[in-house]
Write a structure and sequence with these properties.
Helices cover 34% and strands 17% of the residues. The protein is of the alpha+beta class.
């Protein structure tokens, strides 16, 4: 059996699309057509590197170093502050956006990542995760990058 098919570190180096879900209903999000109806050919997605990628490993290490050096006066005061700090650590995982706008212009990575991740506060609705939570879970799940390797 060729075990190279299980190289999740290499697989995580290729950005994969996460189809975003509505943070209140959990329904998949699509850009609108000319009539304002959801266009199923235009999924709203973010392109992400996996946590096992070199980008991911560096981001995790940088985040840990930053927290160790953080001044006590700058400690988070609430959930929004904690998420804002964590969102900064997720910026390197973003390779791009598809069909996601920031006002009248297309969202861009890295410029709009923190804005996007802080649109809702995570941990408040288990049935409909925030964009931050959707991204965090996606980058950590090996199957999103490795796929289903053959068992034979």
């Amino acid at each position: 059996m060729d075990f190279s098919q299980f190289d999740s570190r290499k697989a995580a180096e290729t950005p994969r699309p996460l189809h975003l879900k509505h943070p209140a209903t959990g329904d998949p999000l699509y850009d609108s057509d000319a009539k304002g109806k959801p266009d199923k050919s235009k999924p709203c997605r973010v392109l992400l590197f996996g946590v096992e990628s070199s980008v991911g490993q560096k981001a995790i290490l940088d985040g840990q170093r930053s927290r160790m050096e953080q001044d006590k006066a700058d400690e988070p005061k609430g959930l929004a502050d904690i998420q804002a700090l964590n969102a900064k650590e997720l910026v390197p995982f973003f390779a791009g956006f598809e069909n996601v706008n920031c006002g009248n212009r297309p969202a861009e990575a890295p410029r709009d990542v923190e804005w996007f991740l802080n649109l809702q506060i995570g941990g408040t609705d288990r049935l409909a995760p925030s964009f931050y939570e959707q991204v965090r879970v996606f980058i950590q799940r090996r199957a999103n990058f490795l796929g289903n390797g053959s068992a034979s």
